[in-house]
Each structure stands twice: as structure tokens, then as C-alpha cells.
Amino acid sequence: MSFQLSYQDYPGNPWFSWQYVRDNSDTILAALREHAELTVQAVLIAAVVAVPLAVAAYWFRPLTGPILALSGVLYTIPSLALFAFIAPYVGTGTGTVLIGLVLYALLLIIRNALAGLNQVPPEVREAAQGMGYGRFARLFRIDLPLALPGILTGLRLATVSTVALVTVGVLVGHGGLGQLILGGFRNNFYRAEILTGTVLCVGLALVLDLVLAGIGRLLTPWIARRTAS
User: Fold this and answer.
1) At 71, which CATH number?
2) What's the distance, CA 50 to chain centroid?
3) Rounded distance, CA 126 to CA 21, Å?
4) pTM for the whole thing?
5) Buried b / exposed e across 77-101, counting CB within 10 Å, b at 16+?
6) Helix, strand, or coil (residue 16)
């Protein structure tokens, strides 16, 4: 990403400048688009991996400890070290950033999905079993729908966390809005550039969280009715 203006083009180095936003709108939108795409892709891939792992831990209790421990270890690896480990194998493209983001999101989704599954009332499971539901039928018709609030909570936490972590991808040239933030620091502490990237990053996290919250309300209307009553 290249910027049209430099620090010297803004006398006084303001924290916010409409001129900067207007003159660099294409670059800003490209960074925002990359940031959003990386976030959405990472969370979707992580969900596809994490929910089956949570189900496996739910069905086979001895697997709970190893699954949570492994995802916890991955979550504690510093991002710099993780990217440094992945890059030699997959290069410094978006794949490196995406793999790292997926690994970091796993723990948040697994833990909350498993918590949601464990909160399914035993009498409901027993009733489903008495009605002749097999393991998979009960999973898709009883367990997962009732565990949906927990799963959505995990997705919301993972999404907000991923929005913040995408900025670290600037180290391998794919950091979305992190490009603006780092570029501002490199450009003689260019305040308008730094603040624009930061505000958009926070705004993106809020918007995605609100979208997921809205989806959650649509998919779990019984919770809203229970709260109202």
C-alpha cells in the first residue's frame, strides 16, 4: 500500500484530518477491506474446526482436557513467534496471517461451544433419547440449537480478538488497518494516519460484534422472550 501524502503535507501534524482521509480514501478503504476479509475468513475457518472439536470433547469426556490444553497452548504463543514459525513453510502472504488468526481463535470458540453444550439440560437429552433420537439426530436437533448462545458468544469473542490481531499481520505485509498504524509511526509519528487506522479498527470490531449479536437474536428468539417475561 502506498500513501499519496506525507507528514510534511500536514502542518501541525493534527490527530485528525479530513484532508488526509479524502486524499488517501482508496488506500484507507483497501486496508479496511483487507482487515475485514481476513477477520471474517479466519473466524469462519476457526468455527468450522472448533465446533466439531467441541462436539468431540462433549461426546468423549477424556478428550476434553487434551483439546482445551492444545488450543490453550496455541493461544499463548506470541504472535511474532507464531508468524516466524509459519512463514518459512507457507511464505509471507495472507496464508501466514490467516493460519495464525485461526489458531488464536480456536480456544475462544471451543471453550464457549463446549460450555454451551454442557449446559443442555440432562432431562432434555434424556427425553430426546426416549423419543428414539440417535446421537447425530440429537446433536443437530437438540444439543446444537440449545448450545447456540454459547457458540455465538465464542464467535463474538473470537471476532473482536481477531480484529485486534490482524494488525500484527503488518509484520508480513498483510495487516489491514495495521498498515496505516505502523505507517504512521514510521512516518515521523504521523498522527492522522495512526488515529485513522486505530478508529477504523475499533469501529470494525464494534460493527462485527453488533452484527453477530443481531444474528444471535434472530436465531435464538426464545432467549429474548424469556428475558422479557
Assistant:
1) 1.10.3720.10
2) 13
3) 59
4) 0.87
5) eebeebbeebbeeeebebebbbbbb
6) coil
